[in-house]
Amino acid sequence: MRAILVGIWGKETSKSSTKESLKELEGLVEAVEGKSLGYILQRRDRPDPRYFIGEGKAKEIRQIAVGTNADTVVFDDFLTPSQVTNLERLTGKRIIDRNDLAIEIFSRRARTKEAKLQVELARLTHELPRLQGKGKKMSRLGGGVGTRGPGEQEIEVRRRDIKKKIHKIREEVEEIKLRRRQQRKRREREESDKKILKVALVGYTNAGKSTLMKVLTGRDVFTADMPFATLDTRTSSRYVSEDLKILITDTVGFIRKLSPELIESFKATLEEVSYADLILHVVDASSPDWLEQVEAVNLVLKELIEDTKPTVYALNKVDRMFKEEEEIKYLPHTALLDSKAIPVSAVKGWGIGRLIQEIEREGRKALELEKV
Q: Most buried of 63, 219, 242, 335, CB within 10 angstroms?
């Protein structure tokens, strides 16, 4: 894939924020082994209903694509089916949006049956509305009034097939959720005599969640410096004191502009957040737009859980900002967060002891458990 990236900014989004989002989009393109040739920014207060960016800018993109030998144009927002069709017709290039990229990455990263089902559900849910209008494009043979050409009939068959698959996958996902609840209840019965703190590990993609989980629990988990390195739910535990055990569950990483299809399909994984006593929110403190990433994660969390839960922020990757562990206390980020925030480096082990102490302290408050 040789891609040109396209984004808009206006009343609701600043130019600098859009540039950061395009930088992230470039990383998503690289994650599917593509190459970004550059980006185009346009100021618009609202997307154009036909071309998202307007016909004039779309024609300009066509010329740039020809000049750079680009084969794909990637939009940093969600496109409607008609916008995709209109843009492909005008530019003669493949048109995809941020959601298409995320689904492709998810499909490459999925390992377990559950993750594969969730990715397929997101893909089919995303594809279904995009079939609209393709039948007429495929067929010009319906001659009489009220008749349909074979292209439209083929699309209708495809639409029914997709709906059946979606229904079947949702049933399988519900079975997985039921098994997980049963496992959770069995685990609670087996350890009913012990105090267990359920911790949900959340964070923006590539914030270092898996590395931190490995440090906290000693569990050997896959880690990599890439978006969505892991999609599967993993649970591990450790004792923080004689009377308190923490059960940590990792969840899929988030990105800004996460589509409703992806949020919905991954609720089976993300429902672990609603059962947690405490949320451990991992943040890449070295990222220039770390605060926007925090807000993006919190926005999704609000859709998943009704009540607010106690939260501890782990400000990770501070080794990229400081040379010595003693310096991390000067990190200014903590003043901008509304909950306790601990600077850490999962790679170098900085601040881990203090983080565990804070998890225990907040956990005991959540469980109303006195310290022995």
A: 219
